[in-house]
Design brief:
The protein has about 250 residues and is an alpha+beta fold. Helices cover about 20% and strands about 25% of the residues. A 9-stranded mixed beta barrel has the order 1-2-3-4-5-6-7-8-9. A hairpin with a 3-residue loop joins strand 2 and strand 3 (about 125-130). The longest helix is centred in the N-terminal third of the chain and has 15 residues, at about 5-15. The chain is globular and about 50 Å long. About 25% of the residues are buried.
Length: about 250
């Protein structure tokens, strides 16, 4: 077969069946861009009352656990259930040292993803950065295939260290190196072995879903799963404000 005949054969196959390269490109799912400002969204909940203009956020009330431990709470092993009971007694006594929100501290992962006042996502090819208005928290999710260094694992943070990869149109994120003194669900202790996996996707246009699975072989009897949803905001309602919690805390008598 001559070179020209080969070229004609390839061209004929391409026309008849489509170029193999074009087919692969066409079949590959498009990766979404998560950039934007989002607020917590529950289709079955009444709309939240808007915050008054010029009113700075204040420290939140302490959740004291006097109603007991709900069935939906993380399933703790006896040692950590005893720690929770100590926290409950302290809070019921009116103390707030075990409540990060009341002390203007980040809830840590995965609790920080409740995003009570909204969040802004900046999404680039190699990184997703999330800014949360509540207590000015932020996270970075690396998408370039990097692995955490020992110095990172030895220095846990509120948000932990997050790396992600794509499975179709879903961003799968693994987070580790989370501070042990943070809380799972704003009121459940965990160990230094806590890891969190997220599956983030658009459940529908403008509705972002984050399925979080927390695992902790020392503190949990089973994985703790949550599904959080957020609605993308449109101008002029796509602005976050500085969260002046520390200033508010200093003025509380």
């Amino acid at each position: 077969m001559t070179k020209n005949t080969q070229l004609l054969s390839v061209a004929f196959v391409s026309v008849l069946f489509g170029s193999p390269l074009a087919i692969r490109a066409q079949d590959a799912p498009a990766r979404p861009d998560f950039s934007g400002v989002y607020f917590p969204f529950n289709a079955n909940a009444p709309p939240a009352a808007p915050r008054g203009a010029g009113t700075p956020p204040r420290p939140v009330a302490v959740i004291d656990g006097r109603a007991g431990r709900p069935d939906t709470a993380p399933k703790l092993k006896p040692e950590y259930l005893a720690k929770w009971e100590e926290m409950r007694k302290s809070r019921m006594a009116g103390l707030s040292e075990t409540d990060p929100n009341a002390n203007c501290l980040s809830a840590g992962m995965p609790g920080m993803m409740s995003m009570g006042y909204g969040m802004e996502i900046n999404h680039t090819k190699d990184k997703v950065t999330i800014y949360g208005e509540l207590n000015d928290v932020y996270r970075r999710i690396y998408l370039d295939g990097r692995k955490p260094q020992p110095r990172t694992l030895d220095d846990p943070t509120f948000g932990g260290y997050s790396v992600g990869h794509w499975e179709g149109d879903t961003l799968v994120v693994d987070t580790f190196a989370i501070r042990e003194d943070t809380l799972l669900d704003l009121f459940s202790p965990h160990s230094d072995q806590l890891t969190v996996q997220e599956r983030i996707r658009f459940a529908s246009p403008g509705i972002l879903e984050d399925r979080l699975t927390a695992k902790d072989p020392k503190a949990l009897t089973e994985p703790f799963v949550q599904i959080r949803t957020y609605k993308k905001a449109s101008p002029p309602n796509d602005e976050l404000r500085e969260f002046s919690c520390a200033e508010g805390l200093s003025s509380v008598k």
